[in-house]
Design brief:
By secondary structure, the protein is of the alpha/beta class. The chain is 34% helix and 21% strand. It has eleven helices and 15 strands. Helix 3 packs across helix 11, helix 5 packs parallel to helix 6 and helix 7 runs parallel beside helix 8. The radius of gyration is 22 Å and the shape is globular.
Length: 355
């Protein structure tokens, strides 16, 4: 029996709280078989003593199902991680730059709910009261859209230094410091990566980007509960997460699962934002094209608050396509007002550190 055959079998073992397996997450350090004994070594980072015990049991169970396996040896190396200072309370590696006061994930369970559009406008809204002290990290490795939406499409960040010590200088516009995979690859280059490469990229975005002094760093996550999410909570002490959903059950049911994922890794939910909530026609009549009440219901089920309802406006989409967010182009408009209110609500829910 080969090492690859053992690893193939171990793809059935999911990391607790996530939909991805331990092989895809790059947690297997070695695997072998000799004299009827399957030997596997794992390396994980967690503060939860239940995680290695659970994994050991699941791996042993999985290995014993293989023909010819009479015994198992499962060695799990656990990296004891620091408990972050007040404001960071999940079992992740406390590796964030000390100059970042707060780190907040912007997440959704599914795609197509306007999460990146929301993140860009929220960042611009926060920058209007915290100019130059707001960061936006685009962690959608496969489909980065932040550069287009914020007006930096085609731009490239500068690199300071050489080799492992080199740092990227984030691009800045509308008072927001931005880093994205979209700055590092061209439009015709698809990113075809496995889990470990995604994890490494996110770690570099946190540790090798010169963010400077930030009051808040927003992290735009891709949909789902996989590699990017696990990498983030293991790399950056998050102060909280905001869930973005549209009102209909097809979106809210999956958004709730995303919220449960954050709760499993001890990241506090700051609230739910309902996007595309309603449309107001020229006569002033309000239409709920995607239903109504989904955001409130999701927040209630997760024990958190509804932060706000963003209207469905053609101008929001147009602003994203043109690289001029509506918060910047129409600062006195309805949408800008809603985004500023959501931003204020988020800041009010964060731990006090002098912000």
């Amino acid at each position: 029996m080969t090492s690859d055959q053992i690893k193939q079998q171990l793809k059935q073992v999911k990391y607790p709280g996530f939909s991805r397996d331990i092989v895809s997450f790059g947690l297997i350090r070695s695997a072998g078989f000799a004299d009827g004994t399957a030997k596997v070594a794992l390396a994980i980072s967690t503060n939860d003593p239940k995680v290695p015990l659970h994994l050991k049991q699941e791996v042993e169970k999985c290995l014993r199902a293989l023909p010819g396996v009479k015994d198992t040896i499962v060695d799990i190396a656990v990296s004891a991680v620091k408990t972050p200072a007040a404001g960071g309370n999940q079992a992740g590696t406390a590796a964030a730059p000390k100059t970042i006061k707060h780190a907040v994930a912007i997440a959704s369970g599914k795609g197509g709910v306007g999460k990146s559009t929301f993140a860009v406008n929220l960042a611009c809204a926060l920058a209007q009261s915290h100019p130059g002290r707001v960061g936006l990290m685009d962690c959608d490795i496969y489909g980065p859209s932040v550069p287009l939406m914020i007006g930096l499409h085609g731009a490239r960040p500068e690199v300071d230094g050489d080799g492992p010590a080199a740092t990227l200088i984030p691009l800045e516009t509308h008072g927001v410091k931005v880093m994205s995979m979209g700055f590092l690859v061209d439009d015709n280059t698809p990113v075809v990566w496995r889990g470990p490469m995604i994890m490494k990229t996110i770690q570099q975005f946190v540790q090798n980007v010169r963010w400077g002094e930030l009051d808040i760093l927003l992290i735009d996550l891709p949909p789902g509960t996989g590699d990017a999410q696990l990498s983030l909570v293991q790399t950056l002490p998050l102060d909280g997460a905001v869930l973005v959903t549209t009102p209909q059950p097809a979106a809210t049911n999956i958004a709730r699962k995303g919220g449960l994922m954050f709760q499993k890794v001890n990241v506090p939910l700051l609230g739910v934002a309902e996007n595309m909530s309603y449309f107001v026609d020229p006569t002033g009549l309000r239409h709920t094209l995607f239903g109504e009440g989904g955001g409130v219901l999701t927040a209630e089920k997760l024990g958190t608050a509804l932060l706000g309802q963003v209207p469905l406006l053609p101008e929001i989409r147009e602003g994203g396509d043109q690289g001029l967010p509506i918060v910047v182009s129409e600062p006195q408009g309805l949408a800008a007002k809603v985004f500023r209110e959501i931003g204020a609500a988020i800041m009010a829910r964060l731990p006090r550190t002098g912000v």
